[in-house]
Design goal:
Blueprint lengths: L2 E3 L6 E7 L6 H14 L3 E7 L12 H10 L6 E4 L12 H12 L5 E11 L4 E10 L8 E9 L7 E2 L16 E2 L7 E5 L19 E9 L9 E9 L10 E8 L10 H4 L5 E4 L8 E4 L1
Parallel strand pairs: 2-3
Antiparallel strand pairs: 1-5, 2-4, 5-6, 6-11, 7-10, 7-12, 8-9, 12-13, 14-15
């Protein structure tokens, strides 16, 4: 079955640069989750950092390239619509919401449609088309389309946490290392290149003309299609730390919102999502699972 999805609204792109060894990162995740729950026009993805002394199954080569190109100097750090340059490109969580609110009021230069979505369960292959239609002439500069395959949530990988002993915090009592942790909105792949698809959009796009790109992706065995999203962003193409990388618009399609057969019965029961607290245990052990 083929699905088409059409959108017409300026949305805001939030990128979190994170690491499973970062104790402050799960606190930022709690805050970001609250932001996007309250405002569905905020679209958030997470780029995980490679770890030199420990395998990191949450990273991908394209996100690693972004970390290097942007000289990401710490984590957690956030970027909103890829605004700013150098160190000003990055925000802490407290700065995200104000910038996002300002960006939501900006023009919707380009409408992003994610069309003809097909999934083959046996081959674990995803095929879709992205269509771009410009409503206003954008600011001068070369534009790329970045298309991300994102998984939410990814279980089975630890997360360090500074909030085990923080009274009233949602992560209180879950341990200094949280073993049953849902890693949110993990970028699994960026299609074509770390900086997206080039040579699709002319330097001066024509209004009302449709620019089209077809994509195909095969899910690895450890990547759950049922928890996956397609995220597409149109942005300036400069990949240097001090260059203009402003995002004009972003869109997302969650695969589980479509009537696609995304999992076999075996897949549905292959993963137990279990929350254990407190850690360490003193008098009672609490188990929470679906």
């Amino acid at each position: 079955m083929v699905f088409s999805c059409s959108f017409a609204q300026k949305k805001v792109f939030i990128e979190k640069f994170t690491n499973f060894l970062c104790g402050a990162c799960p606190g930022a995740t709690v805050e970001l989750h609250n932001f996007v729950t309250e405002n569905p026009d905020l679209i958030w993805i997470s780029h995980y950092k490679p770890v030199t002394f420990e395998a990191n199954p949450l990273m991908n080569p394209q996100s690693e390239q972004l970390w290097d190109d942007l000289n990401v100097f710490a984590n957690p750090l956030m970027a909103v619509d890829r605004l700013g340059s150098g160190s000003s490109f990055f925000l802490n969580t407290s700065g995200v919401l104000g910038v996002a609110e300002t960006q939501l009021a900006k023009p919707e230069y380009v409408n992003i449609n994610i069309e003809n979505i097909e999934f083959d369960l046996d081959q674990r292959s995803l095929n879709f088309i992205v269509e771009l239609v410009f409503n206003e002439i954008p600011p001068e500069g070369t534009l790329h389309l970045s298309t991300f395959i994102v998984q939410d949530s990814v279980w089975g990988h630890k997360q360090h946490s500074y909030f085990n002993n923080s009274p009233g915090h949602p992560l209180e009592g879950q341990g200094d290392i949280i073993w049953a942790y849902p890693h949110r909105n993990v970028v699994r792949a960026i299609m074509d290149d770390a900086w997206g698809t080039a040579n699709l959009i002319p330097d001066t796009p024509e209004l009302g003309i449709t620019y089209t790109k077809e994509y195909s992706y095969v899910f690895p065995e450890d990547h759950k299609p049922i928890d996956s999203h397609i995220v597409c962003a149109v942005h300036k193409a400069v990949n240097l730390p001090n260059g203009d990388k402003t995002t004009l618009n972003v869109e997302r399609q969650k695969l589980n919102e479509l009537n696609l057969v995304l999992s076999s019965n075996e897949d549905l029961y292959s993963e137990v999502k279990l929350k254990i607290s407190p850690n360490p245990v003193f008098e009672a052990l609490n188990l929470e699972f679906s």
